[in-house]
Amino acid sequence: MKLFSVFGISLTGKTTTIENVINELKKRRYSVGSVKEIHYEDFAIDKEGTNTYRHSQAGAELVTARGYNETDILYKERLSLQKILRNYSQDYVILEGVEKGNFPKIITAKESEEIEERLDDMVFAISGKVADEIDEYKEIPVINSITETERLVDLIEEKVFEKLPDFPADCCTACGFNCRELGKKILKGEAKRSDCVISDTNTKLYINSKEIDMVPFVQSILYNAVQGVVSEIDGYHKGVDIKIEIDKKNR
Ligand code: SF4
């Protein structure tokens, strides 16, 4: 999954940019998912008085509304981005309004001052209304997402890489950097996505069919624990593939 964000203040053209990008990515036959961050404290789709609201008020931790054309799973909490993304398997996932994180970013703005306030090393393009005024800002291309959609998506194809882990700097530096530093280097063309050793691991953990990122230290604990138990069992020999499945229905 390749992940990037489009962010900027209200009415700068975020949603228009994302709409145009999704259309063009679909034309290029990619599957696309999106996540919209809502910066409004009282936001809730599930309103007081609805049947689903009554379910959650009665204590249901997870409530699903299943219609003929739409299924909405309602979590009564703010999920981390990591948890949300476990539900996605598309080629590209676009985050609207998410500013902080270890992924490439597009800023939308009306004027240069807004760009300056939000600029960081992961910004690879600028779009929105400011594209009517300038075509570059500090060597970052400013692209009109309506009239130059193909150019913007060419750049997305060139720059956006497979989702990187985002561990704290003291958890892992196996690639020689921390996760955020490696992200910046990939974007600048000074490193490759494959430099993250997590992708080369021979120990993987899936929870509900979704792969869980593990720093090398945790991989090593899991590997040694499983290896220690399995190596005592008949049929084991060095180099075998080991697969363990734990289905909660059987516990
Ligand atoms: S190897 Fe991967 S998980 Fe470890 S610091 Fe580098 S990018 Fe992060």
Order of helices and strands: EHEHEEHEEHEEEHHEEH
The counted number of beta strands is: 11
Q: Portion of residues in helices?
A: 25-40%
CATH superfamily of the largest domain: P-loop containing nucleotide triphosphate hydrolases
| Helix and strand composition category | alpha/beta
Q: Which molecules are bound in this entry?
A: iron/sulfur cluster
Number of structural units classed as domains: 2
Catalogue the unreliable spans: none
How much of the sequence lies in strands comes to 15-25%
Rg from Cα: 22 Å
Number of helices: 7
Report the major sheet: 5 strands, parallel
Assembly form of the protein: single chain
Query: In the CATH hierarchy, what is the class of the largest domain?
Result: Alpha Beta
The residue-averaged pLDDT reads 91
Shape: globular
Kindly report the CATH topology of the largest domain.
Rossmann fold
Query: What is the level-2 CATH architecture name of the largest domain?
Result: 3-Layer(aba) Sandwich
Structure description:
With about 250 residues, the chain is α/β, with parallel strands linked by helices. It has 2 domains: about 1-160, Rossmann fold, CATH 3.40.50.300; about 200-250, no CATH class. It is built from 7 helices and 11 strands. The chain has helices spanning about 15-25, 50-55, 80-85, 110-120, 150-160, 180-190, 215-230; strands at about 1-5, 30-35, 60-65, 70-75, 90-95, 105-110, 125, 135, 140, 205, 210. The strands form 4 sheets. It has a 5-stranded parallel β-sheet with strand order 2-5-1-6-7, covered by helices on one side. A hairpin with a 2-residue loop joins strand 8 (about 135) and strand 9. The relative contact order is 0.14. The model has no long low-confidence stretch (mean pLDDT about 90). Iron/sulfur cluster binds near residues 172, 173, 177, 197 and 215.
